[in-house]
Structures are given as structure tokens and as C-alpha cells.
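Good morning N.,

You mentioned wanting to compare the apo and holo forms, so I went ahead and generated the holo version with glutamine. This is what I fed in:
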Amino acid sequence: MKPKTLIIRTAGTNCDLELSHAFQLAGAETETHHLNDLIENPDQIARFDIIGFPGGFSYGDDVAAGRILANRLKHQLLEPLQDAVKRGVPMIGICNGFQVLVKLGLLPDPHAAVQTVTLADNTNPRFLDRWVGQEVDSQTKCIWTQGLTSFELPIAHGEGRFVTENDNIIAQLKANKQVAIRYPQNDNPNGSVDNIAGICDPTGLILGLMPHPERYIDATNHPQWTRQSEEVKSNTPAGLQFFINAVSYVKDRNGATV
Ligand SMILES: NC(=O)CC[C@H](N)C(=O)O
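and this is what came out, ligand included:
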């Protein structure tokens, strides 16, 4: 059976269709649910093997990107989400989804569930929409980035500058191998500390990242695809690999039951 993926959307979410498509290509079944539906029936979260928090402009980025959705989740759905964490459900928060996960406190440590990091305004305070290099930290525990090293993904954000409450937090993230992805040293688009583009929780199951892997699921998504070699074009696109990794993880772990 295919792993069941829950995609959580609300007013202003705009990457849910692409995220669902990426998971389906990777071999998962998907259901997209509105936040209000989940708040009414929180028990249904227990049916899912993977959870995705898509990108977009939830609640119009009012107050700060992801803040309102994070507060609604924190006050109305934290318990079923933490139950999912305890069940070892892989989760991914992309862009606005990453902003939500850190403001909700599911990252960097879902058990503490307090906010210690954030995505602040880009240093050059503009919305950035372009492809950027990505480098996977060779030490990372992240299950989503297994087998990936360096590649490119699109970014599209105004509030993507990763910062931590203090220097201890960054030292802890490094010591626990929670830094998953960085921008190249010479092309940090938003001023993130230590060039960080994505982090995971201490188990490696929950990933949050600013770039959009769901926008690179076919060779033709890449802006240079017509100039790429046949070999590069026939490789699994790096973005799709994230979803394949999570689906394989769940299948391997659950063996014949999923
Ligand atoms: N693509 C996104 O999810 C954008 C996130 C958020 N709206 C920002 O601009 O930072």
C-alpha cells in the first residue's frame, strides 16, 4: 500500500497542488485538508504516514509570514501533531511551511515546542524569486536529503533569513547534525546565518526549508534544461528525490504493512 500523506492548507496557501503532485509522483497517496476541517476532526491526523506543510502566503503574511497559521496550529492542533511526531511521522515544511514549523516550535525541537529560531526579512528587503545552489550537509540526520549532495532549487520568498535566538542554538543545531541544507558560501540570497537554507529536528524526520523541492520534479522544470546533457536530464530531479526518500523511508520502516 502507498504511504498516506496529509497536506495542510488554509487561506493563502498556494503550493498545495504542487506538493501533492510531487508526493504522488514519488509513490504516495495524498489528501489535502483545510485547517478548519482538521480542527473539527483532529482524530483524522492519526490516519497519515507523512505530513506536508506547503508554501504560500497563509493569512496574507499578516503580522509575520506563517505567524497566524502557526498560532492556530499551536492552540488548536498541537496535541495531534505531537502525537504524529511520537509515531515517527516524517514531516516537511516548505517556505511558508518552514516559517510555520519554526513559529509553532515543531522545529528545531518538536518535543520542546518553543520558538528559538525564525525566518526574518531578507537582508535586501525584497521578494526573491530565482534558482539558487543548495548543498546538503554531509553530516545531517535528515532523511529527506539522503543521497543528495549539491544541486539547485528555486526560492521564492520575502522572509527567508534564517536566524537563531542566540549563538548556543546554532552550536546545538550543528552538534546535533540538524543543519540539513545550506546555500553556497558565495550565493547566500537572504543573509541566513551560516548560509542555512533548511534544518531538521534531532531525529531527522522533520525537515523545514526555504527552497522549493516540489518545483523541481521534472527535468524540464530547470531553467537550463535545454542545455543540459542527456545524462543530467535522465537523472531523478533533485526536488523529486526528497519525496522519494520520505516515501521509501515509510515503506521500509513499515515493511509489508504500508
Ligand atoms: N513561497 C512561499 O511560501 C513564500 C513564503 C512567504 N510568503 C514569504 O514571502 O516569505
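The chain has one domain: 4-256.

Happy to go through it together on a call whenever suits you.

Best,
F.
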